[in-house]
Amino acid sequence: MFGIIISVIVLITMGYLILKNYKPQVVLAAASIFLMMCGVWLGFGGVLDPAKSSGYLLSL
């Protein structure tokens, strides 16, 4: 339930900022990063699960 409330607040804030002629790319990027951080914080999973990682960067 808390995730839905956060999403609605972010959605309303995004709409307000876009209507106030802020750059949509910046608004959408910031909102998406914020929602990803909230998702990790609320326990919906990490950005990249270590068990599913290919280990590509470790082999360089």
What layout of secondary structure does this protein have?
Layout: H1 2-19, H2 24-41
Helix pairs in contact: 1-2
Mean pLDDT: 86
The major sheet is characterized as: none
DSSP E strands, number: 0
Query: What is the N-to-C succession of helices and strands?
Result: HH
Separate helix tally:
2
Q: How many angstroms separate the termini?
A: 42 Å
Q: How much is the radius of gyration in Å?
A: 15 Å
Label the structural class.
mainly alpha
Quaternary state reads: single chain
Bulk shape:
flat
Low-confidence stretches: none
Helix amount: 55-70%
Q: Strand content of the residues, in percent?
A: under 5%
Membrane topology: Multi-pass membrane protein
Protein name: C4-dicarboxylate transporter
Organism: Escherichia coli
Keywords: Cell membrane, Membrane, Transmembrane, Transmembrane helix, Transport
